[in-house]
């Protein structure tokens, strides 16, 4: 039978006095007390059931379990056994100590009921053997956490790392930093190594080495694999390290982010750090002692190398779960980072800002798009009120965009045959670009290799043309929605998931919009170049132009999981007790809202089979 102790926590500490000086007790929550041994073993005790759950390093865990079992073997009111431990219990609403053993009712113990109960095999249900260390339905609280940083070269990431580290320690986390350039790239690249006679040489050498690693491995996520390998290597056992956070400095390619999300789907978060170009340039020149020309060269290369395997910071940045602004206001930066971590650790009183809410609405609007290239959403808002939404899709007669609808004849939800682009089988804009190239080739008789000439033309700005598309852009549709409903957009803010193209920008200016907030860049846009008189990029107090600002806050990707009290992937949030009094949230006893369990679904299935077998026995079923 499993090890149990049915006394109070004080009595338990007295019984386990032999452990004094060998570790420390932690109050995880009302239904979980934890002893962390210096040898790496961890004992969890759940007062509601009296049960124990041991974890940690194999040797340390086994030794701790032996000591606890021996100390409690003669405990009155409790029992001890060295057999397989059961999975920890679900959190209970009350902290009173009660036995969870249920005596079968008379109707359940009759021969008739036993003979009628099918065996698990007969029911087609697997009765798995217990593994002994898999939590199922418990209040897991020791999750590891991986935070990746992305910022353009010249961004002072050290300030962000220091602030993250200090705050994570309040939550009881041990923080490790992984410097990709020093700890990953240098271990896999033997080429492009120099004496690094200057900081410019060092940075350029690391960029070259990273590019080379991606190119020669044929895997643009190779550095992400190195990050995961280092985390695994740093563990002294195959088990996870309780309350350990890793800060990755930094990521430069979209596929690195995708791979880390594949490896750590519940435990990886990407933090985008925005610092404007003048500030980054000044930092590289004044602090890193680069020449102005060298600083500009590195900044241009870092933003987006024209190579599939090159540095693509701009393309990586918009994939962030959170965005913070580094502008010299350290207090504001600290508040932003603290707020993000408080949200991650389940502070029920941290709700969205209006900018966060509006951007999530824009993202939600984008999901209805059937465009062949990308989904873009936009929202027009004023005085913290949503006025209209828009997405990029094809226009329909009568106003607005196409929606799928139920067809009585076909008896299913369908799109109009000649409505959206995918129903027509082509992107009209790309089709017209190809026709332009064909016309040029036909009129240039001196070209010997026309196919080579065609490929050269396809690499020109002809591919940037957008005016031949049938799709109404999201920003335009949001403004048109205002017009259709006699709503003025003068003085409003447009929130869009992607930076507006130059066609949308001129209408945004003409509509009287004062501010544009975006997440994803759009390099093809000539908006800033064409409208220097009316547009200011970045954060500005200029009231005579439309301000195009990068988004700051909790991004749309994790919005639902982190702000929903009940429907997200994490545990439910509570704000009041049974009497209606507000509950106090404390970072010292908080746990990650979304726990990264160190188990696969196969492990959890095994635990489920074991628990189901136990319940069947309680209900009087035959084994």
TrEMBL record:
It holds the Pfam family dCMP_cyt_deam_1. Keywords: Hydrolase. Residues 111-123 have a biased composition (Low complexity). Its cofactor is Zn(2+). Residues 353-543 form the CMP/dCMP-type deaminase domain. One of its GO terms (cellular component) is cytoplasm. PANTHER family: DEOXYCYTIDYLATE DEAMINASE, DEOXYCYTIDYLATE DEAMINASE-RELATED. This is Cytidine deaminase. It comes from Pyxidicoccus fallax.
């Amino acid at each position: 039978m499993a090890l149990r102790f049915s006394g109070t926590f004080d009595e338990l500490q007295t019984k386990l006095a032999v452990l004094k000086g060998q570790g420390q007790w932690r109050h995880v929550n009302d239904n979980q007390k934890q002893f962390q041994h210096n040898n790496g073993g961890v004992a969890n005790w759940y007062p509601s059931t009296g049960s124990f759950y041991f974890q940690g390093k194999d040797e340390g865990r086994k030794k701790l379990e032996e000591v606890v079992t021996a100390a409690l073997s003669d405990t009155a009111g409790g029992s001890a056994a060295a057999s397989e431990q059961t999975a920890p219990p679900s959190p209970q609403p009350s902290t009173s100590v009660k036995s969870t053993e249920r005596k079968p009712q008379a109707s359940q113990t009759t021969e008739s009921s036993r003979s009628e109960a099918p065996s698990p095999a007969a029911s087609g249900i697997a009765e798995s053997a217990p593994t002994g260390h898999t939590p199922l339905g418990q209040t897991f609280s020791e999750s590891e956490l991986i935070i990746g940083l992305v910022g353009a070269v010249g961004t002072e990431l050290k300030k962000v790392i220091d602030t993250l580290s200090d705050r994570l320690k309040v939550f009881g986390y041990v923080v490790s930093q992984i410097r990709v350039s020093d700890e990953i790239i240098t271990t896999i690249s033997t080429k492009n190594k120099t004496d690094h006679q200057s900081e410019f040489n060092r940075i350029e050498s690391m960029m070259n080495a990273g590019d080379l690693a991606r190119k020669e491995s044929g895997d643009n996520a190779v550095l992400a694999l190195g990050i995961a390998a280092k985390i695994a290597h740093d563990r002294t056992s195959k088990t996870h390290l309780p309350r350990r956070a890793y800060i990755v400095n930094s990521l430069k390619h979209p596929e690195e982010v995708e791979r880390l999300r594949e490896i750590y789907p519940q435990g990886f978060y990407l933090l985008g750090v925005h610092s404007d170009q003048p500030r980054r340039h000044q930092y590289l020149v004044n602090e890193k002692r680069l020449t102005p020309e060298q600083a500009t060269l590195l900044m241009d290369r870092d933003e987006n190398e024209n190579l599939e395997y090159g540095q693509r910071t701009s393309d990586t940045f918009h994939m962030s779960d959170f965005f913070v602004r580094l502008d010299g206001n350290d207090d504001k930066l600290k508040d932003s980072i603290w707020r993000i971590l408080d949200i991650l650790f389940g502070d029920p009183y941290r709700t969205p800002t209006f900018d966060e809410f509006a951007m999530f609405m824009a993202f939600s609007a984008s999901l209805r798009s059937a465009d062949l290239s990308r989904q873009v959403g936009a929202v027009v808002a004023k005085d913290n009120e949503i006025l209209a939404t828009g997405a990029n899709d094809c226009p329909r007669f009568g106003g607005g965009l196409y929606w799928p609808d139920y067809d009585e004849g076909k008896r299913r939800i369908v799109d109009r045959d000649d409505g959206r682009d995918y129903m027509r089988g082509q992107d009209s804009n790309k089709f017209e670009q190809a026709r332009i190239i064909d016309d040029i080739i036909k009129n240039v008789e001196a070209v010997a290799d026309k196919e080579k000439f065609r490929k050269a033309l396809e690499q020109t700005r002809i591919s940037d043309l957008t005016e031949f598309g049938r799709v109404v852009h999201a920003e335009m549709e949001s403004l048109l929605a205002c017009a259709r409903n006699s709503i003025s957009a003068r003085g409003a803010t447009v929130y869009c998931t992607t930076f507006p193209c130059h066609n949308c920008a001129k209408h945004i200016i003409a509509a009287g919009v004062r501010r544009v907030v975006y997440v994803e860049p759009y390099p093809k846009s000539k908006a800033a170049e064409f409208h220097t008189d009316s547009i200011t990029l970045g954060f500005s107090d200029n009231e005579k132009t439309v301000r195009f600002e990068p988004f700051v806050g909790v991004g749309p990707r994790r919005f639902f999981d982190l702000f929903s009290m009940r429907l997200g992937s994490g545990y439910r949030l509570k704000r009041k007790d049974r009497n209606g009094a507000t509950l106090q949230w404390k970072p010292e006893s908080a746990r990650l809202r979304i726990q990264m369990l160190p188990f696969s679904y196969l492990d959890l299935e095994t635990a489920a089979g074991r628990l189901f077998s136990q319940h069947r026995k309680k209900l009087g079923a035959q084994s």
